[in-house]
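Risk register update: the risk of archive-format incompatibility is retired. Evidence:
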Amino acid sequence: MARRKRKGGSNLEAEALRTQATHPDLIQQCNMSYWNRYNSGGSSSKTTESSIAPYNASLSILRLKKVGFHKKVSDSSVQTEINLWYITKNDSTKYREGNLPSFGQYVDSKALVKAVNVSKLKEDEIQHPIRALFAGLTIPGQILGQQLAFSGLPNLVNFAKAYPVGWGGLSQGMAVFDLSIGAFRGLPSGYVFLDLSPKVPFQQFLNHPDFEKMRKREREATRIALTIIAKIHQECEASTPFWSQDARTQPQVQLVNFTDVDIDLLDDKQLLMYWEAYFRESSKVWYQMNFGEKLVEMIKSIPHVDDIHERVTSLAEPTPTQDYSMSRQVRLGTTFTSLVGIYNRRRTLRVLHFHATPLLDRRLVAIIARSCPNLRMLGIYDCPNLHIGDSICLLDLIHEINSTRAPGQPRIEAFDFYPRYNAGPILGKTKPEEDASTYGVSWKPVRIDAQQRGVFAILLQVVLKAKRMGLRLLLDKDSAFMTYLSRLPFPPLQILGFLDGLYRYLDLIKARSTNKDAVKQALYDVLRPVRSGLESLDKDWPSYYLHEMDKNMMFCSSCGYEYLQDFFAQSAQFAQVHTRICSACTLRLWLDEESDNDKGDANVIWEPYFQNWQRSEFNQDAPLHQHGQGIINLRSTETERPLPPAAQIGPNGEPVGPRYVEPLMRDNKVHKDSLQNLPDFVELFQEEIYRVAMHRARVLDARQATDTILRSFYPSDQEGVKAYKDVVPDFNSQGPSRTPKDMCLTSHNFESAALFFETLQNKSFRDQKAYRNSNQYNPTGFW
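Archived output:
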């Protein structure tokens, strides 16, 4: 049968809509005791209501405060977790004021690359009974080092800080690659590979002998970028800034078709003019083809100055008070140096950690992990191109690798993951009228209806897949991933309350509990955080709790999973059945397309290596834990939609036959998590492709330098030309401060989350809307 492939549905971006219902607060009805409710027969609805104990949002919170968290969620009391949340909120304030630059980072790997020359240590500096234990080149030392690394990168950091000498010995049995110097710290050996990118102050980078090689590389990268700028500026000549009114309104000149000119009819002066015009236009076209039209137009907008090379050099370098930031050219070269090290050790590696690796993306992780047949533990921390949504495809990757390994071959048993955390800009580096907030999941505020539901939908898959695989570390109470979740600016208890309800629900289903109240209450505690602040909870008892909750599953045409409807943004809930997109896929799309702080650079640089990669391909889905089927299940893996049957006309000329219903299938994928059709590891080292990728890195460096120059030359409006910063997007800015119009639609920062928790969560939805529509707005708040 012929099949057709749909190019996307009507719902590629979930809209953040709110219910218009203005119901009175009926929470007090739930204070009626279950034992005092009559059960005198009547309709089946009344019988159902009388057999189920009342439960709603207020009772859910009271239960949590009384009973505490599930043992897998937290050992702390509810009040302690609230206090810890406010400490995190205060830390975010300190960060934005410039007093806590490490906020949002999971770990600082600087202690792991600090040189300790063990050969020069006096023998009595290491106590004899434990001396051999920390000798990394011995079998006991390698076993200890492997076990420490297996438990996560923070344990290595803590050990290195507490006992530098011991770490100096232990690290001799590992491969420690320091991206900040572009080389290994010591000779690589053993079963552990650490790919580390510690922060380095630029002043230290300029003066410390460890960075001599990198300084040389950076000087060469700067020279190449400036040569590109100067050459294009010379050949294409300066012109009116591309954003100016003159440039936009001047008539388009029809270019001469040089092949139509009979040069034999031209005199010497005309011939000279012809060849000048010919070479000028051909140079412009050549540079646009090789460096991109955007870069050429930017460089042509630089005014004609005699000392452009010196001006560019002085503007392109960061100030000594900033941290050292690698150029794209050096990032690519250093990344390949580390890739060569991993490739050479791929058959012996058992533990692999990446920390703040600048160009690491999900596809590169897949290529590396698939090539390491003995890998048992993977750790990824603070890598800028890996967001919370990537936790799903990385779990799918681990399942795929484990399922293809032969019996007796080791499996990947542990996965530690700290996604990129968006701490936001520092107040002193933003304009007063611009937003400067911590949003955690995303850099800028996004529509909260899809964001909030999306985070919980992603978290639901992560829990059920990791639990089914028996994967260690990822969801441990003190793991990197749980630490990340605890730092997100959601209202206190919202995420932990979701996990508490989910673990209770899974336990009850596993035990085949006959306690209907316990099961329904656990499920409600899963869904309440998903819906909180987005829709009315006022009539949850009895209307939602008895007649709506867990009654309606919806299918996602992007991923093929079927969720309870609460995990779909409200606009998606009203879309056609076969075009709906869940909030997890919507959020993952938004995070995939973020381009702030150079996040898009990796895609540009790696593109030549992934010619056969298609974003629409699906990974091998890791199975979900069977006890979560009442909340989510994989409904369809079909991707090609069949053509509808031909219309049939009856004898009276009217159509006959049953109405055609579109089948449910995942033919509308929106995000880019595919890890299929990737090259083998060895294919990454092709010299021709490397040259293409390096050229792209040079163009990116030149574009960033040109952007800095234009901001310097056009800092304000002058002679009809607007300030450059006012007409081009600043990808490191969060945009204008939020206004009352969007405060009710965008994701929380810490201030708005605190406001909601302290003031609004116990109010009726009508009161919440009234507060939102009043003049009592918090300038940086949500409502």
